[in-house]
Amino acid sequence: MDFNQQIIDTFRTNGGEVNEPMQFGKKLVLVHVPRKDGTIRIAPLAAIYDDGAWHIVGSAGGSTKHPAWVFGLRRSEEVDVEVPGEPVELVRAKVEELTGEARDAMWVRFKEFSSGFAGYEKTAEGRVFPIFRLVA
Q: Distance (Å, rounded) from C-alpha 5 to C-alpha 115?
């Protein structure tokens, strides 16, 4: 089983709590990202819940390229999001990409959320990580 599928299965089985294969707790969401061909890709993503919305970042582990799901979100006005709860809840969310000061402030929050995000800046060769706000 691939890594993402293991996280998805654990998320759904445990009310959104994931502690294996990595320690996320309830700080993930599953975003149903539409692809160009009309299929859906489910992306398990670290999320910061703030001001009635989930915030996700296209860090791609510090890659120099955006993850593919970023382009799917940019084409979408709304997406389905699975959020932690008993049971896991599927909500429809409006997609907003943060820019300027709002994006920069949330990036600081992601670096506080996990030191790994700060390390990604070193390997991304100047790529600015897109941050999306998902509002149910």
A: 24
Contacts of 114 (CB under 8 A, 6+ apart): 46
51-81 burial: b if 16+ Cβ within 10 Å, else e: eebbbbbbbbebeeebbebbebbeebeebbb
| Cα-trace Rg, the chain | 14
Query: Does residue 12 contact residue 26 with C-beta atoms inside 8 Å?
Result: no
CA 94 to chain centre: 14
pLDDT tens digits for 3-26?
Answer: 999 999 999 999 999 998 888 999
Element (H, E) at 34: strand 28-34
78-116: pLDDT as tens digits = 999 999 999 999 999 999 999 999 999 999 999 999 989
**Rounded Cα–Cα distance for residues 131 and 136 (Å):** 16
